[in-house]
């Protein structure tokens, strides 16, 4: 069977190749165009065969499931008839990019290979249902949102159109012009006339009816009835219980106030009628706005006095009252006001008002203390202006007053002592306190006089020291002094401004000596008899010096000498060795023994110069305070322990000597101590230098002050003595020498 | 049904329709029928994985439209 089939195939192949050659050639041509040139080489005859083979298979198997070979053979019988159809319509799969077989061809091939045919996926049913991957469940297809939106839009548009059409239908009216087009002027006139006629008829009928009523007296009855009805329907009694939305105070007493029923909402569930006056409502609204603005500004108050008062009056204590309006806007309005005819409530209200007023005002012993603290504010770094003012007060200047005083100098001469107190700007001196005001010049003179007297007394005492005073003399002296004092007390001195001026001009040595100045003598008129016993008159600035001729001695010579002038008389030589020594000492030829050439002024000697209220300890106190325990730690006590030693001031003198006993100057002493301290002496060179210096110093001390080191002067003098000539001939050569 | 593309990069590229429960050997036979190469000379690879003849395509997770490398031995 296989061989037979084979033979048939080969025969068919020949036939097919013949019959389909133009198409194959064409197909190949197309492929060649598309593929790369290199591939042309690869196109072996084998490859060419494949489509041929597959075509054969396809022709052999038109039905999808011909598995048995018998059926295949059966179909092969019809091959020729189908072949012509295939020739005319090539399979679409063969035209693809790669060599790919169609399903049928593949199935044919598979059958040949002994494989089951391909499982062609069945077309999904058209009911819009999709099976899931497992093939078990159908899923509802997801709705397409875009399509849905589109549909919605379309529907909306349609609805709009319909609505528009409906409205147009409804509003179809004849336009004014169109309508008038229908009627002509005559018709319109007729119409209006009709209307007028109807009106007139109606009026006539009404008049007729009225007439009839009047005739029967019905009109008066009706009017009366109406009035009575109204009266009955509403009178004062009916006003009772109506609420007036204002306080009694708000209604002015002196004139009538028209109250109207307040507006209220149509759908309001409470049907209470409230009487208001429009103007008062406006006023209240205005007041309320202001109050709310104030409240908003204050914010939260921990201690609300208003709330306290409310609580004291028996009202419920409000919690955060400022939000009441927001919670229930008309709550306040409903409780406000009074009811007409409700006297008790009015009285109660009045009482409460009184209590409130009392609470606010407080009793006699009530002290109002607000608990509200002033708000915190950030502290400023700078002084506030008010603080500044408090700190610095401007000092009032007194310059003006002083100026005045200068302009008008007080004439001291005019003011008699004790008569009228002087006009001074700052102090008031009472009459009793004012001492007799002395002339300035007088005071000055007095002091001078005192000085002169004092000096004279001293002089006399000094003079008396030489002889031993006898008792009589002493007595005499005492007596004199007494008289002197009495004279002093009683002694009047006439001074005037001219004399003073002349005196202060300075001493003119010749002034008054010529005797031509009589008046001056007169002016300076002491009582001569009284002045004469005074032997003195020390030179007091050149004024009024009077030299007593009887006393030869110069006035204060000894005294002044004691006070230490630099010039001393040369001690006289010739009073023995002592005199010579004293001379030598004074001239500096001899040093005072004890190596104290000029004893330093000790502290005790300078004690008189020291300040009385100053001591070194004052300093130490300050220092103690300053660095007290901090620097020295806790182990040192106060510095001023030994108070009893406060006047112990030892005279300390630091003196240093070196190893040889020589005194050292401070610089040297420091060097010496430093070397000792560090345990390291100076170098060898330094030491030599120092030694040399010391030696030189010693030589210098030994050096004679009168001669050169080589004793040239001595030799010169010797030579002169030898030659007995006052000169010496200096010459370099021996032959020149005179001797 | 699935269709795999087999390419030796020497000029042969074929698309073969097959079933997921076909073995690799079956696929090779189909390829051989299309290309004319003997099926026992064909090696199918994906990267370094050489597909074995007796294993089904579904076990190798070969899906529709995959590219397989075609080699010869």
From TrEMBL, chain A:
Listed GO CC annotations: U4/U6 x U5 tri-snRNP complex
Pfam families in the cross-refs: HIND, SART-1
Listed Polar residues bias regions: 89-104
Biased segments, Basic residues type: 1-19, 30-40
Region of interest: Disordered: 1-130, 142-173, 403-423, 528-548, 623-644, 718-739
Compositionally skewed regions (Basic and acidic residues) per UniProt: 41-61, 73-88, 119-130, 149-169, 623-634
GO annotation, biological process: maturation of 5S rRNA; mRNA cis splicing, via spliceosome
Keywords per UniProt: mRNA processing, mRNA splicing, Nucleus
Localization (cell): Nucleus
Family: Belongs to the SNU66/SART1 family.
Protein's UniProt name: U4/U6.U5 tri-snRNP-associated protein 1
Organism encoding this protein: Danaus plexippus plexippus
Automatic annotation (TrEMBL), chain B:
InterPro entries xrefs: Hub1/Ubl5, Ubiquitin-like_dom, Ubiquitin-like_domsf
Pfam family, one: ubiquitin
Organism ancestry: Eukaryota, Metazoa, Ecdysozoa, Arthropoda, Hexapoda
Keywords: Ubl conjugation pathway
Species: Spodoptera exigua (Beet armyworm)
CDD domains tied to this protein: Ubl_UBL5
Protein name, as recorded: Ubiquitin-like protein 5
Organism superkingdom: Eukaryota
Gene3D superfamilies per record: Phosphatidylinositol 3-kinase Catalytic Subunit, Chain A, domain 1
Domain Ubiquitin-like: 2-73
């Amino acid at each position: 069977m296989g061989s037979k089939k084979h033979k048939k195939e080969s025969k068919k192949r020949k036939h097919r190749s013949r019959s389909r050659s133009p198409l194959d050639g064409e197909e190949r041509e197309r492929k060649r165009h598309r593929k790369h040139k290199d591939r042309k080489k690869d196109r072996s005859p084998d490859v060419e065969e494949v489509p041929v083979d597959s075509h054969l298979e396809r022709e052999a198997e038109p039905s999808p499931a011909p598995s048995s070979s018998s059926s295949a053979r059966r179909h092969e019988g019809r091959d020729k008839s189908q072949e012509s159809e295939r020739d005319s319509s090539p399979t679409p799969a063969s035209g693809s990019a790669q060599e790919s077989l169609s399903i049928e061809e593949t199935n044919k091939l598979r059958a040949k290979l002994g494989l089951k045919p391909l499982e062609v996926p069945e077309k999904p049913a058209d009911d819009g249902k999709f099976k899931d991957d497992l093939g078990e469940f159908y899923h509802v297809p997801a709705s397409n949102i875009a399509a849905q939106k589109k549909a919605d839009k379309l529907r909306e548009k349609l609805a709009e159109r319909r609505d528009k059409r409906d409205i147009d239908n409804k509003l179809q009216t004849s336009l004014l012009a169109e309508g008038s087009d229908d009627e002509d002027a005559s018709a319109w006139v007729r119409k209006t006339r009709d209307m007028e006629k109807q009106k007139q008829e109606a009026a006539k009928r009404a008049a007729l009816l009225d007439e009839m009523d009047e005739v029967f007296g019905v009109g008066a009855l009706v009017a009366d009835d109406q009035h009575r009805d109204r009266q009955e329907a509403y009178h004062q009694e009916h006003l009772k219980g109506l609420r007036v939305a204002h306080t009694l105070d708000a209604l002015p007493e002196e004139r009538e106030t028209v109250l109207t029923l307040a507006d209220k909402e149509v759908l309001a569930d409470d049907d209470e009628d409230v009487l208001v006056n429009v103007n008062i409502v406006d006023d209240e609204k205005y007041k309320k706005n202001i109050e709310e603005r104030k409240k908003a500004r204050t914010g939260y108050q921990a201690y609300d006095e208003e709330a306290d008062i409310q609580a004291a009056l028996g009202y419920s204590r409000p919690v955060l009252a400022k939000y009441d309006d927001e919670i229930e806007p008309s709550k306040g309005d409903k409780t406000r006001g009074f009811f007409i005819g409700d006297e008790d409530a009015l009285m109660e209200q009045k009482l409460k008002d009184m209590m409130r007023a009392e609470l606010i005002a407080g009793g006699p012993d009530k002290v109002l203390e607000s608990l509200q603290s002033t708000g915190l504010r950030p502290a400023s770094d700078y002084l506030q202006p008010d603080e500044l003012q408090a700190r610095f007060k401007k000092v009032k200047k007194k310059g003006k007053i002083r100026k005045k005083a200068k302009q008008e100098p007080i004439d001291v001469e005019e003011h008699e002592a004790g008569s009228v107190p002087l006009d001074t700007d700052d102090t008031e001196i009472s009459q009793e306190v004012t001492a007799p005001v002395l002339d300035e010049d007088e005071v000055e003179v007095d002091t001078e006089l005192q000085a002169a007297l004092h000096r004279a007394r001293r002089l006399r005492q000094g003079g008396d020291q030489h002889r031993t005073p006898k008792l009589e003399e002493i007595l005499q002296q005492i007596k004199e002094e007494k008289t002197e004092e009495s004279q002093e007390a009683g002694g009047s001195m006439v001074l005037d401004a001219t004399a003073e001026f002349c005196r202060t001009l300075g001493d003119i040595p010749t002034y008054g000596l010529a005797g031509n100045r009589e008046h001056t003598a007169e002016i300076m008129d002491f009582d001569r008899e009284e002045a004469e016993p005074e032997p003195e008159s020390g030179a007091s600035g050149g004024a009024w010096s009077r030299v007593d001729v009887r006393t030869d001695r110069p006035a204060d010579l000894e005294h002044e000498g004691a006070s230490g002038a630099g010039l001393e008389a040369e001690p006289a030589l010739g009073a023995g060795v002592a005199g010579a020594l004293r001379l030598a000492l004074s001239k500096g030829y001899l040093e005072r023994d004890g190596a104290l050439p000029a004893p330093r002024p000790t502290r005790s000697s300078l004690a008189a110069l020291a300040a009385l209220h100053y001591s070194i300890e004052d300093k130490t106190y300050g220092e103690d305070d300053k660095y007290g325990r901090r620097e020295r730690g806790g182990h040192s006590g106060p510095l001023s322990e030994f108070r009893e030693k406060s006047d112990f001031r030892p005279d300390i003198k630091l003196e240093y000597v070196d190893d040889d006993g020589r005194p050292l100057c401070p610089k040297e002493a420091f060097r010496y101590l430093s070397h000792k301290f560090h345990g390291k002496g100076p170098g060898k060179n330094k030491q030599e230098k120092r030694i040399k210096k010391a030696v030189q110093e010693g030589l210098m001390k030994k050096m004679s002050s009168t001669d050169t080191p080589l004793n040239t002067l001595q030799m010169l003098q010797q030579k002169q003595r030898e030659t007995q000539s006052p000169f010496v001939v200096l010459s370099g050569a021996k032959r020149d020498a005179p001797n | 049904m699935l269709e795999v593309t087999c390419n030796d990069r020497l000029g042969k590229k074929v698309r073969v329709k097959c079933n997921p429960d076909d073995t690799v050997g079956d696929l090779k036979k189909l390829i051989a029928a299309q290309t004319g190469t003997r099926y026992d000379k064909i090696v199918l690879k994906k990267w370094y994985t050489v597909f074995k003849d007796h294993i089904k395509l579904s076990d190798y997770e070969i899906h529709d439209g995959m590219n397989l490398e075609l080699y010869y031995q």
